[in-house]
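testing teh design pipeline on a random one, pls ignore if ur not involved
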C-alpha cells in the first residue's frame, strides 16, 4: 500500500530563464509561463504488514510529523539555487511538518520552537516553496524523517545543530516507537521539473510479537541482547553527499552520510562526534542493551530494530506482575524494510 500526499508551490518563469538565462531588473516582470512546482509523497509499508511508519492505523502521516530535505546538484561545480539556505538553517536543510487539516507539508515557523538559524531563539525554516529551480543541471532531492533538534558545542568550539532522528531503546511510548522508525526518500529530477515525487521507505526493521495466552493489559515485553544505539542518530548513506557543497565545517551532511553507491539509502551506522569532526560508526552488535516494545493492545507488541546480524540470539521477556516468561528469538538477521512476525506462547 502506498499513501500519496501532494505539496504545491506556485512558480513564475520569465522567457529568458527558460533558455538558461536569468531575468534582469530591466526586463519585463510579467511572466510568459506559469506553472506549479509540486512535491508528492508516498509511504511504502513494511514488507509483511499493511501499516505505515507514522499513523499506526496505516492511513496517513500524523499532525506534526517532520521531514528534512537536502538538495544537491552533483554535476555542477558551483552552488546552484536551492542548494544553500545562506545560513538560514544548519547544513542547508529545508524543514517541513505535516498539516493534516490542509493536507500538505508546510514550512516550520518560529512558533514550532526550533532555533533553526542559530541565533539562540526560535526561528522559521527557509521556505522551499520560494525556490525557482530552473538551472540547467539535475537536482537530487533527499528527504528523511526527524524527531529532535540537537544543539551542542563541539570540542573545537564549533556550534553544531542537527535535525536528527533519534533511536529509542525504550519504545513503550508510541512517540518513541515512531521516532525510531526512520523513513528515507531520494529522487533525481532534470532541469525545469515541477512535479517531484518522494517515495518514503523504511530503512529500519521491525518485530511484531503476538502473545498467545492469558496476560493482563499491563504486561511489559522486552527484547534483551540488541545493539546498544539508544539515543543515537541513525545515519543513512547518501552517494551524492560527497558532492554536497554546503557543508557545516566537519560536522555536517557530507561528513556523516557520504558512502559508496552500493550503500546509498542504507543504514551505514550511527553518528559519532569527536572533538574535530562528525562521522558515522558501524553498529556494534556486541555492545548490547534491552529494547522495550510498544504495547499495541490485544496481546500485540511492536519494536523497531536496526538492520544487523546478531552474533547470538536475543531473548524475549514478558513481565506480567509477578509472572515472568522468556523465549529465545530465532531471528538473528534483520533486514531494512521488513517486519518479522513472532509468536510467543505462554502456559
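output:
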Amino acid at each position: 500500500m502506498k499513501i500519496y500526499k501532494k505539496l504545491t508551490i506556485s512558480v513564475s518563469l520569465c522567457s529568458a530563464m527558460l533558455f538558461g538565462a536569468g531575468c534582469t531588473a530591466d526586463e519585463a516582470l510579467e511572466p510568459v509561463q506559469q506553472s506549479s512546482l509540486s512535491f508528492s509523497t508516498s509511504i511504502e509499508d513494511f514488507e509483511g504488514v499493511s501499516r505505515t511508519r507514522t499513523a499506526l492505523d496505516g492511513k496517513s502521516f500524523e499532525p506534526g510529523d517532520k521531514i528534512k530535505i537536502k538538495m544537491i546538484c552533483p554535476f555542477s561545480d558551483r552552488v546552484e539555487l536551492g542548494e544553500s539556505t545562506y545560513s538560514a538553517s544548519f547544513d542547508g536543510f529545508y524543514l517541513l511538518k505535516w498539516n493534516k487539516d490542509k493536507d500538505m507539508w508546510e514550512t516550520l515557523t518560529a512558533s514550532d520552537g526550533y532555533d533553526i538559524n542559530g541565533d539562540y531563539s526560535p526561528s522559521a525554516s527557509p521556505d522551499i516553496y520560494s525556490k525557482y529551480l530552473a538551472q540547467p543541471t539535475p537536482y537530487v532531492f533527499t528527504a528523511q524523517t526527524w524527531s529532535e533538534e540537537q544543539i551542542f558545542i563541539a570540542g573545537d568550539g564549533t556550534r553544531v545543530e542537527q535535525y536528527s532522528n533519534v533511536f529509542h531503546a525504550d519504545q513503550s511510548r508510541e512517540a518513541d516507537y515512531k521516532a525510531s522508525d526512520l523513513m528515507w526518500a531520494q529522487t533525481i529530477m532534470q532541469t525545469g521539473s515541477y512535479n517531484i515525487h518522494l517515495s518514503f521507505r523504511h530503512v529500519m526493521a521491525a518485530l511484531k510479537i503476538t502473545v498467545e495466552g492469558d496476560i493482563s493489559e499491563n504486561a511489559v515485553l522486552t527484547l534483551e541482547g540488541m545493539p546498544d544505539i539508544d539515543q543515537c542518530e541513525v545515519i543513512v548513506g547518501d552517494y551524492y553527499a560527497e558532492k554536497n557543497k554546503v557543508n557545516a565545517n566537519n560536522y555536517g551532511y557530507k561528513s556523516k552520510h557520504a558512502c559508496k553507491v552500493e550503500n546509498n539509502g542504507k543504514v551505514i551506522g550511527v553518528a559519532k562526534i569527536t572533538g574535530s569532526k562528525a562521522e558515522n560508526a558501524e553498529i556494534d552488535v556486541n555492545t548490547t542493551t534491552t529494547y522495550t516494545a510498544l504495547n499495541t493492545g490485544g496481546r500485540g507488541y511492536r519494536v523497531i530494530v536496526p538492520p544487523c546480524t546478531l552474533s547470538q540470539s536475543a531473548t524475549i521477556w514478558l513481565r506480567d506482575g509477578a509472572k515472568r516468561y522468556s523465549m529465545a528469538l530465532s531471528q538473528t538477521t534483520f533486514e531494512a524494510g521488513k517486519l518479522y512476525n513472532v509468536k510467543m506462547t505462554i502456559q
